[in-house]
Amino acid sequence: MKASSLSIGFRRATCSFCRLSRQAQYESNGFRSFHPPGVSRRHLATTTTSPVTAAPELNFSKRDGKPIDERLLKRVRIVPASPSYFSGKPVFTDGLLSMQALLRKFQTLPCVEPNDAPRVAWKRFREYLGQVNEPVKAAKYHKIIQILQRLNRIHPSLMPEEVTEAMKRYKRDVNPHDNQAKPSFVDENGVSRGLGRRKTSTARVWLVEGEGEVLVNGKTLTQTFGKLHDRESAIWALKATNRTDKYNVWALVSGGGTTGQAEALTLAIAKALLVQEPLLKPALRRAGCVTRDPRIVERKKPGHLKARKMPTWVKR
What family does the Swiss-Prot or TrEMBL record give for this protein (predicted)? Predict the structure, then answer.
């Protein structure tokens, strides 16, 4: 029994050694033990492979056509031009750090009031993205604009040349005083115009002295707005100044819903009324008819049911 078990074990060891020797022979010839299906090992053994060529080595022995000491090459390494190279946004990071350094350096200089500071047209966000060609967010660029606005408030007689040169990189090549609103006027027919917006709604109004008639898109106020609140909002500028029966209104509205259109009419009528009677501006401002409401609908987020509502959490 023992002799038979020894012979069987010796036979297994011999077979395994033969397999290992064949595998080593394949590896020494440059072949792997794995072969694709449908291709025999005999075919792989007879196939000739092309020699592998490596990329040419970089030659650091010369710089600008001049030889460099080899002992120096062993101690030096390639260093990026800026420490912000590995940040992903090196141009933006360098610009932000330089602006912050300037602010720390000159923050003790006398400043003027924001209304008295020189008017400057800064580059828009899209223009800045095209300049740096980096994935910068609008909020990040706004940080640079805030620092620039603070530096722009330095007294003009004490403005350092270093700050002036730094701000030139972010200025637009336009004159900010040229971008002024066209003055409104009453035409030869006694008609004044006004434009108002709210959310995605736009309202254009023509105002003329009359008996208090209001037409919106060729319809009466009742036909256009079914809600009483919307009808009151549309003519709130006339109501707040007791001018409901002194002017006729002809308006065109588009976009959005009834509430947005009614509140856009409020601003448009107020602007047209100010052209007729500029002294009503304090009363209209107290009534909240002069300033546009900038609020818009907040967008829906991924994973939320609405803008902020989250799905109901279930434990199991």
Answer: Belongs to the universal ribosomal protein uS9 family.
Same domain, 203 and 152: no
What is the rounded distance in angstroms from the CA atom of residue 307 to the CA atom of residue 305?
A: 7
Burial class (CB within 10 angstroms; exposed 0-12, middle 13-18, buried 19+) of 98: middle
In this structure, the answer to whether residues 147 and 212 fall within a common structural domain is no
Task: Write the DSSP symbol of residue 156.
Answer: G
Amino acid in position 194: G
- Establish if 276 belongs to a structural domain: yes
Of 199, 219, 218, residue with least CA distance to 266: 199
> Mind listing the pLDDT tens digit for each residue in 168-225?
999 988 776 676 778 888 999 999 999 999 999 999 999 999 999 999 999 999 999 9
Final residue belonging to a domain, choices 111, 133, 168: 168
Write out pLDDT tens, residues 31-77: 444 444 454 555 445 545 556 566 566 566 666 666 766 666 666 67
State the sign of the Cα–Cα–Cα–Cα dihedral 188, 191, 197, 203. negative
CATH of residue 204: 3.30.230.10
Buried-state track 163-194, b at ≥16 Cβ within 10 A, e below 16: beebbeebeeeeeeeeeeeeeeeeeeeebbbb
Do 158 and 212 lie in one domain? The reply is no
How much is the pTM? 0.54
Determine, yes or no, domain membership for 47: no
DSSP 131: H
Give 116-144 pLDDT, tens digit per residue.
Answer: 888 888 999 999 999 999 999 999 999 99
Q: Give the three-state DSSP class for 63.
A: strand
C-alpha pair distances (Å), 26 with each of 17, 34, 197, 257: 14, 10, 80, 78
Cβ neighbours for 285, distance < 8 A, ≥ 6 positions apart: 291
User: Does residue 215 sit within a domain?
Assistant: yes
Number of domains in the chain: 2
Please indicate, yes or no, if residue 139 is contained in any of the structural domains: yes
- The residue segments making up the domain with residue 134 are 87-168
